[in-house]
C-alpha cells in the first residue's frame, strides 16, 4: 500500500450529503475484483444527464478539477453497502484524501486499507472550503498527516484527529496483509512445527 505523509493537491467539490457507495460506484461496475479501471464508473449516474450527455456541472466533467487529489464533501459520506470497490474507484480516479464533516463507519475503515486518508473537519470549516473552492479556478491545500492538520494557502490551519494505530499504518504504507507479513518468520516457524506435530493435516486428501 502506498504510504501517506503529506499531500498538496487540488480540491474537487461534491456538495451532497449522505452520498452512498451505490452512487460512488454503481452495481454494474462490481463485476471485477481488479482495482484498476474503476474510475470509469465513479459517480457514473451523476456524471451524466438522463439523455446520456455529460452533466457539465459535475466536478469530474470540469477541466479545472481533472487533476484533483482531494475530495470535499458533506455529512455521512460513504453510507450504504460496504463495497470496497468504492474506495478503489476513488483511488483509481486519483483521490488520496477526502474532507468531510462525517463518514459512514465501514467506508471510513476501508479508506485506511486503501491508502485514502478520510479527514473529519468541523462543518463550518467544510463550508469555508466550499466557498473558496467554488470561487476560484483551482484551490489547493496541503494535508499533513504527520502534524494532523489541513494547511490553507493563506496560512490558516484546520487540525484533525486520527487513531494513532491507523496513522502509523498510513505513514508506513501498511494494510492488513502488510501487517500480517511483518510476522512472517513466526508464521513460518509455526507451520513447520505444526507439520511435524500433525503431519496428517498436511497430506494430500487424494492420496
Short description:
The protein is α/β, with parallel strands linked by helices and 207 residues long.
Biggest sheet, spatial arrangement of strands = 4-3-2-1-5-6-7
Quickly count the helices: 8
Number of strands: 7
Categorize the overall geometry.
Answer: globular
Which percent range describes the beta-strand content?
5-15%
Order of helices and strands: EHHEHEHEHEEEHHH
Number of domains: 1
Percent range of helical residues: 25-40%
CATH class: Alpha Beta
CATH superfamily: Aconitase, domain 4
State the CATH topology: Aconitase, domain 4
> Which value, in Å, is the CA radius of gyration?
21 Å
**Helical/strand content category:** alpha/beta
Description:
The longest helix has 14 residues, at about 185-195. The protein has a seven-stranded mixed beta sheet with strand order 4-3-2-1-5-6-7. A hairpin with a 4-residue loop joins strand 5 (about 140-145) and strand 6. The protein has one domain (about 5-175): Aconitase, domain 4, CATH 3.20.19. By secondary structure, the protein is α/β, with parallel strands linked by helices. The radius of gyration is 21 Å and the shape is globular. Helix content is about 30%, strand content about 15%. It has helices at about 20-25, 45, 85-95, 105-110, 125-135, 165-170, 175-180, 185-195, and strands spanning about 5-15, 70, 95-100, 115-120, 140-145, 150, 155-160. The protein has eight helices and seven strands; from the N terminus they run βααβαβαβαβββααα.
Amino acid at each position: 500500500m502506498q504510504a501517506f505523509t503529506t499531500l498538496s493537491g487540488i480540491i474537487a467539490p461534491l456538495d451532497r450529503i449522505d452520498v452512498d457507495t451505490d452512487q460512488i460506484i454503481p452495481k454494474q461496475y462490481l463485476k471485477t475484483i481488479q482495482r484498476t479501471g474503476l474510475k470509469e464508473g465513479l459517480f457514473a449516474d451523476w456524471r451524466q444527464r438522463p439523455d446520456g450527455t455529460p452533466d457539465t456541472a459535475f466536478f469530474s466533467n470540469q477541466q479545472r478539477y481533472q487533476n484533483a487529489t482531494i475530495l470535499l464533501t458533506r455529512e455521512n459520506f460513504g453510507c450504504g453497502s460496504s463495497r470496497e470497490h468504492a474506495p478503489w474507484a476513488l483511488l483509481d480516479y486519483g483521490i488520496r484524501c477526502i474532507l468531510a464533516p462525517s463518514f459512514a463507519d465501514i467506508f471510513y475503515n476501508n479508506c485506511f486499507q486503501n491508502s485514502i486518508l478520510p479527514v473529519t473537519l468541523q462543518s463550518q470549516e467544510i463550508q469555508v472550503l466550499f466557498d473558496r473552492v467554488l470561487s476560484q479556478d483551482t484551490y489547493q491545500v496541503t494535508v499533513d498527516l504527520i502534524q494532523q492538520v489541513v494547511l490553507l494557502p493563506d496560512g490558516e490551519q484546520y487540525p484533525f484527529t486520527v487513531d494513532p494505530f491507523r496513522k502509523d499504518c498510513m505513514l508506513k504504507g501498511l494494510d492488513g496483509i502488510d501487517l500480517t507479513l511483518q510476522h512472517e518468520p513466526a508464521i513460518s516457524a509455526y507451520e513447520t512445527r505444526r507439520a511435524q506435530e500433525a503431519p496428517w493435516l498436511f497430506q494430500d486428501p487424494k492420496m
